[in-house]
Amino acid sequence: MAQTIRDLRNLALVGHAGSGKTTLTEALLHAAGALRARGSIARGTTASDFDPQEKRLQHSLDATLLACESRGRRLQFVDTPGLADFVGRSLPTLEAVESAVVVVSAVNGVEPSARQMMAYAQERGLARFVVITRIDAPDARPEAVLAELRETFGKECLPLNLPADGGRRVVDCFFQREGEGTDFGAVPAAHEALIDQVVEVDEALMQVYLEQGEVLDLDQLHDAFEKALREGHLVPVCFASGETGAGVPELLEVFARLAPDPTEGNPPPFMKGEGAQAQPVAVVPDPAAHVVGHVFKVVVDPYVGKLGIVRVHQGTLRAGQSLYVGDGRKPIKLAHLYRLQGKETQEIPSAGPGEIVAIAKVDELHFDAVLHDSHDEDHHHLKSVAFPPAMHGLAIEPERRGDEQRIADTLHKLVAEDPCVRLEHHAAQNETVLYGMGELHLRVLLERMAERYGVKVRTHAPSVPYRETITGPAPGHYRHKKQTGGAGQFAEVYLRVEPLPRGTGFEFVDEVVGGAIPHTFIPAVEKGVRQALERGSVAGFALQDVRVVVYDGKHHPVDSKEVAFVEAGKRAFLDAVAQAKPVVLEPIVELEIFAPSTSQGDVAADLATRRGRIGGHESLAGGRVRIAASAPLAELTDYQIRLKSLTGGEGTYALRFGHYDAVPPRRQQELAGAYAARRESAA
């Protein structure tokens, strides 16, 4: 068992689905003696994929923590999903480790998720290792994939070992200077390239190496090697086979001897304050300092309750300790601390910097929360991860009446577990919409609702989130006068509306002078305007990008009331909008499509039928192409299925919100007609 922080190594295995991360993790644990027998994905017996859904799909759907011991060091691995739909479960793990191990298949080469994870790891300042797996597969091409890595990520990708005997074993190139029998490349040349790359970050060491011609030993190289990793000046590449175990003992040695410990990695990007005033904060891996821990994963179990997975960055967590969550002023008590090994838990009394532990049954925990024991750290937060937005939605309604609250509670649990799950209620359409990263993501969520929580729902395609705006300025006026047997209601409002640039939102300006509308009633006018904003004017969709200027009005010393000015503000605003050439807007999304080069023409032609526009394309290694495009979201409801059909199942895409733009006139007429029909039937 590791005794000090310098004996810890935290590594996240990331990469594309099918690259071999789970199989490699299983082989590493078995080789280190942490598993008595290796599990199988096909049989559903791996330590990583223990969830019934994972066994059924034979893919990782969540990040799993596993650990082993090698050379007296504790290696803490996080096996992550590679499917693009589950990036919300993968990216947060990079907050908890010093090293990202990007797993690339020797058969498929550099795939989209590997590119994405390499970029995120570089942005986060993590040490990056690349492991080329499946080197003994019949169609493996390790030499070509190494060349593709260097072309894609740079010349700093250098092999620490080389495959031999058709991938049945590997030959070390770093710890030794000589070797032979490799499938390609020479050991002395690979060793020299590594040393040359490492000494470039240390002028004194370079001088010893070049001028004195000394052979450098590992102790001399250690600091420079760690610096090269921190700066991204070196990205070591290793070869292995998770299936046969070739290269796995060598990989354990690399991680134990060369991966940075928590004191050697780049410090996590903690900040203090918000927005432009946010400043970096030094968080040091000192067990005696104030506690700073980060919740990078949340699991909501129907039996155990909420489980927060915490990386300790500073100080020491202890069972029974009182801590604060973020800027909360009420402390929570840690009744128990657990170390995780797949689905197994081991209770521990304490955890210091660098350790990853679980805290159970604390409702206040949430994803991205910072735990601390001093109000000096109450505004600390990690620089936010830029998650891709969830744009694939399903409208949800209960299968049985009376299940509304159960459904709401279950949906909020799903949102708590995955930062790429979003829940919205569209008041205008009276729809609750669950958004995810793709069709598979949503299907897994719905299955989880049914299997884990016993909640069944009906689904349908959600209404497109159209908006409305105006294209010109216009005045508006309304006089509200209501007389009853008692006190009456009176309010008169003059205002004008002006269009704002796309994406600006809404502005309310008070230019009333002389007390024509008393200051106390101005908020009521704004309230009425905002009510009309939400209801829409042309087709029943919320208005945006509008400035409203209230400049005159009248009041009555007895009959003027807040409710009267709310109504007058609403009606005056609608009067102005009707004259301001209103239009309906539709969301335009940006697409990034990966497909075989042979399918490029078909993909482009299909996009044209969807009112899409090609923004550019880039040829990639392995006969693939990346296409940048934009298209209306309304035209993409079946795009995932269509793209798979056009590309023989090989096409993938990601989309993000781009901007709003006016719908074609014919579509606006259809939407306006449908809105008028709904209002007429409701009346």
**Strand arrangement, major sheet:** 16-15-21-12-13-20-17-18
Q: What is the share of helical residues?
A: 25-40%
Number of strands: 35
The CATH fourth-level homologous superfamily of the largest domain: P-loop containing nucleotide triphosphate hydrolases
Q: Name the average pLDDT.
A: 91
CATH C-level name of the largest domain: Alpha Beta
Describe this entry's structure for a reader:
The protein has five domains: 254 residues, Rossmann fold (3-Layer(aba) Sandwich), CATH 3.40.50.300; 88 residues, Elongation Factor Tu (Ef-tu), domain 3; 72 residues, Alpha-Beta Plaits (2-Layer Sandwich); 113 residues, Ribosomal Protein S5, domain 2, CATH 3.30.230.10; 80 residues, Alpha-Beta Plaits (2-Layer Sandwich). It is elongated, with a radius of gyration of 30 Å. With 683 residues, the chain is an alpha+beta fold. The chain has an eight-stranded antiparallel β-sheet with strand order 16-15-21-12-13-20-17-18, with helices on one face. A seven-stranded mixed β-sheet has the order 2-3-1-4-5-9-6, sandwiched between helices. The chain has 16 helices and 35 strands. The mean pLDDT is 91. 28% of the residues lie in helices and 31% in strands.
Notable features of this structure?
Elongation Factor Tu (Ef-tu), domain 3, Alpha-Beta Plaits, 28% helix, 35 strands, 16 helices, eight-stranded antiparallel beta sheet, alpha+beta, 683 residues, Rossmann fold
